[in-house]
Write a structure and sequence with these properties.
Order of helices and strands: EHHHHEHEEEHHHHHHHHHHHHHHH
Shape: elongated
Low-confidence stretches: 176-191, 197-247, 252-263
Domain ABC transporter: 1-172
Strand order of the largest sheet: 1-2-3
Largest sheet: 3 strands, parallel
Mean pLDDT: 78
Structural class: mainly alpha
Domain ABC transmembrane type-1: 297-582
Biased composition (Basic and acidic residues): 253-269
Helix content: 55-70%
Radius of gyration: 40 Å
Number of helices: 20
Protein name: ABC-type glutathione-S-conjugate transporter
Strand content: under 5%
Distance between the termini: 57 Å
Number of strands: 5
Keywords: ATP-binding, Membrane, Nucleotide-binding, Repeat, Transmembrane, Transmembrane helix, Transport
C-alpha cells in the first residue's frame, strides 16, 4: 500500500506497459486529438519504427484498428502507443517498460531515435521503467527499486563504483567476469559490454541483420531478463532467424494478395446494419416457436375466456338492473326471475354474478401464468441460441464486431425480450379483445352503429399504417445507435489511466455525451410518435363515444319507426364500454 502526493508542471505523456489502443485508424490513434503536422508525423512514424508496418497494412495509416488493437501484434500496439506519446510533445514522459513487447533490434532503434540522448524527446523529462540493462549506461539518473522501495539512486558509473545491490545485479545478469573467476569489471568495461550487446541487436531499415548476430562468441549471447530471478541463457540461431524472415515475407505476400482481392480492407469495423420495412413473419413465428406452440395457444385461449367471462358478467349485471324496472318486473328474462320473493331473486343474481367473478379471476391467473411461462421459455431459448452462436463464432467475427454491439445484444435487447415484449404482448391482447368487446356491446345495443364501424376502421388503418412504419424504424435506429455508447464507455474504462495522464477527461466526457445525444435523436422522436398516436386514438375513442350516445338517443326517440326496443341496462353497458375505449386504445 502506497500513500503520498505528487506535484508536477507541464503536460504529461504516458506509455503504459499494456498498450491502450482506440477503435480508430492508426493515424487517429497517434494524433490523439492533436492537429495534423506532416513533418512531425512522418518523423514520429520513422522514430517509432512504424513505417514497415504501414507498408504491410492494407490501408496504411488509415487502417482501422479493432477494439483493444485486436488486429495488431503486441509490438505494433506498443509502438503505436509510444508514437502517440511522442507526437504530443509533452514536457514529462512516463514510459512504463515500453520496449518489453518489441523485438530487440526494434528496441535498439526506438531507444536511439526516441528515448536516448539523440532521440526525438531528448530535451524532455523522461522517466523510463525497464528491466533491460543495455540501456542503462545512456541514462542520466538511475533509481533502483527493491521491494517497492528506493534502494539506490545515482548515475550508472556511480552505482557500479558503489558496488551495491545494483552492481551485483549487473554482474549476475550479464554474467561478465564470473566464469573465469575474474574480478568485477570496471565501469568502462561494463559500458563497452552493454554497447556491444546493443550493436548486436541492430538491423537496417530493409530488414538485413548484422552478421555478428550469428557469431558463437560467448560475448554475443542474448541477455537474460531478470524479474528478481535468473532466467536461462538463450542463443539466436541463424536457421531460426531465416525461418522468421521467411514467415514474415510470406505474411507480407499474403497481406498484399488479400489487399488486392479486397479493396476495402482498411475498414475493419463495419457499420451496424439497420433493417427496413415491415417485420418478417418468420421473426414472429420464431418467437412463437421459442414460446412453444402449446403455451402460445393456451395463453390466447385463457385471455379469450377471461374476456368472455368479463363480458358475460357485465351482461348479467345489465339484466339484473333491468329486472327491477316496472315494465320488466313481471317478465321472466332469466331463471332468477321465476323466483317468487325479491330476496331470492336478488340472491340468485348475486350468486351467479359472484361465480362469474371467481371464474374470471382464475382465468386471469391462468392467463398471466401461461404468458409468464411463455416469456421465460422464449427468453431462455433465444438467449441460449445467441450465446451458442457467439461462442462458436470465428475469431474474425470479433475482429469486425465491437464488444459494445455484442453487449447491446446481451443487455438491452435481452431486457426487451425478457420484459418489454411480454408486457407489450399482454397489452396488445388485452386492448384488442377490449375493443372487440366494446364494438360487440355497442352493436348489440344499437345496431345502426354498424354504419360507423367501416369509416372508423378505414381511419384507423390509415393511422396505423403511418405510425407503425415510423415507430418501427425509429426503434431500430435507437437500438443501433445504442451500441457505440457501450463501446465508447468500455474503451474509456480500459484506458482510464492514459486518459487521466494526458488530461483529456473532458474530451472523452464530451464524446460520450455526443454518443448519447446521437442516440436521443432516434429515441426522442419515438416518444413523440407515441404521443402522436395517443392523440389520434383518443380522438377515435371520442368518436365512438359520440356515435354510441347519439344512436342511443335516436333509437330512444324513434323506437316505433325503427321497431327496435331500447334496454336501459344495455344502454348503460354500451356507454360504459365506449368510455373505456379512450383508455385502452394506446396502452
Amino acid at each position: 500500500h502506497t500513500q503520498g502526493q505528487g506535484q508536477g508542471q507541464g503536460q504529461v505523456a504516458y506509455v503504459p506497459q499494456q498498450a491502450w489502443i482506440q477503435n480508430a485508424t492508426i493515424q487517429n490513434n497517434i494524433l490523439f486529438g492533436q492537429p495534423m503536422q506532416g513533418l512531425k508525423y512522418s518523423e514520429t512514424l520513422h522514430s517509432c519504427a512504424l513505417e514497415p508496418d504501414l507498408e504491410i497494412l492494407p490501408g496504411g495509416d488509415q487502417t482501422e484498428i479493432g477494439e483493444k488493437g485486436i488486429n495488431l501484434s503486441g509490438g505494433q500496439k506498443q509502438r503505436v502507443s509510444l508514437a502517440r506519446a511522442v507526437y504530443q510533445e509533452a514536457d514529462v514522459y512516463l514510459l512504463d517498460d515500453p520496449l518489453s513487447a518489441v523485438d530487440s533490434h526494434v528496441g535498439k532503434h526506438i531507444f536511439e531515435k526516441v528515448i536516448g540522448p539523440e532521440g526525438m524527446i531528448r530535451n524532455k523529462t523522461r522517466i523510463l521503467v525497464t528491466h533491460g540493462i543495455n540501456y542503462l549506461p545512456q541514462c542520466d539518473q538511475i533509481v533502483v527499486m527493491n521491494g517497492g522501495r528506493i534502494s539506490e539512486i545515482g548515475s550508472y558509473g556511480e552505482l557500479i563504483d558503489a558496488d551495491g545491490a545494483f552492481a551485483e545485479f549487473i554482474r549476475v545478469y550479464s554474467g561478465v567476469g564470473e566464469e573465469d573467476g575474474e574480478d568485477a569489471p570496471s565501469v568502462s568495461e561494463y559500458t563497452e559490454y552493454c554497447e556491444e550487446n546493443l550493436n548486436l541487436e541492430q538491423s537496417d531499415s530493409h530488414g538485413a541483420l548484422d552478421p555478428s548476430v550469428f557469431s558463437d562468441d560467448p560475448e554475443t549471447r542474448s541477455r537474460r531478463r531478470a524479474h528478481g530471478q535468473h532466467l536461462e541463457k538463450k542463443r539466436v540461431s541463424k536457421s531460426e532467424l531465416k525461418r522468421q524472415l521467411s514467415r514474415q515475407m510470406s505474411s507480407e505476400v499474403g497481406e498484399k494478395k488479400a489487399s488486392a482481392e479486397h479493396t476495402d480492407k482498411s475498414t475493419l469495423i463495419k457499420q451496424e446494419k439497420v433493417e427496413t420495412g415491415s417485420v418478417h413473419m418468420s421473426v414472429l413465428f420464431a418467437y412463437v416457436r421459442a414460446c412453444t406452440y402449446p403455451l402460445s395457444l393456451l395463453t390466447i385461449l385463457f385471455y379469450l375466456l377471461t374476456n368472455g367471462a368479463s363480458l358475460a358478467s357485465n351482461f348479467w349485471l345489465a339484466d339484473w338492473s333491468n329486472s327491477n324496472t316496472p315494465e320488466n318486473r313481471n317478465q321472466t328474462v332469466t331463471a332468477c326471475d321465476s323466483l317468487n320473493s325479491l330476496a331470492q331473486r336478488s340472491g340468485c343474481y348475486l350468486g351467479v354474478y359472484g361465480a362469474l367473478g371467481i371464474i374470471q379471476s382464475f382465468l386471469i391467473l391462468f392467463a398471466a401464468f401461461s404468458l409468464a411461462l411463455s416469456a421465460i421459455f422464449a427468453s431462455r431459448t433465444l438467449h441460449n441460441s445467441m450465446l451458442k452462436n457467439i461462442l462458436r463464432s470465428p475469431m474474425s467475427f470479433f475482429d469486425t464486431t465491437p464488444l459494445g454491439r455484442i453487449l447491446n445484444r446481451f443487455s438491452k435487447d435481452t431486457y426487451i425480450i425478457d420484459e418489454v415484449i411480454p408486457r407489450s404482448l399482454r397489452s396488445f391482447i388485452f386492448t384488442f379483445l377490449s375493443v372487440m368487446a366494446t364494438l360487440i356491446v355497442i352493436v348489440v345495443t344499437t345496431p345502426p352503429f354498424l354504419v360507423i364501424i367501416v369509416p372508423l376502421l378505414i381511419l384507423y388503418a390509415i393511422i396505423q399504417r403511418f405510425y407503425v412504419a415510423t415507430s418501427r424504424q425509429l426503434k431500430r435506429l435507437e437500438s443501433t445507435t445504442r451500441s457505440p455508447i457501450y463501446s465508447h464507455f468500455q474503451e474509456s474504462v480500459m484506458g482510464v489511466s492514459s486518459i487521466r495522464a494526458y488530461r483529456v477527461q473532458q474530451r472523452f466526457v464530451l464524446q460520450s455525451e455526443e454518443q448519447v445525444d446521437y442516440n436521443q435523436l432516434a429515441y426522442y422522436p419515438s416518444i413523440c410518435s407515441n404521443r402522436w398516436l395517443a392523440i389520434r386514438l383518443e380522438f377515435m375513442g371520442n368518436l365512438i363515444i359520440l356515435f354510441a350516445a347519439l344512436f342511443v338517443v335516436i333509437q330512444r326517440n324513434y323506437q316505433e319507426e325503427i321497431k327496435i326496443r331500447i334496454n336501459a341496462g344495455l344502454v348503460g353497458l354500451s356507454i360504459s364500454y365506449a368510455l373505456q375505449v379512450s383508455h385502452v386504445s394506446f396502452c
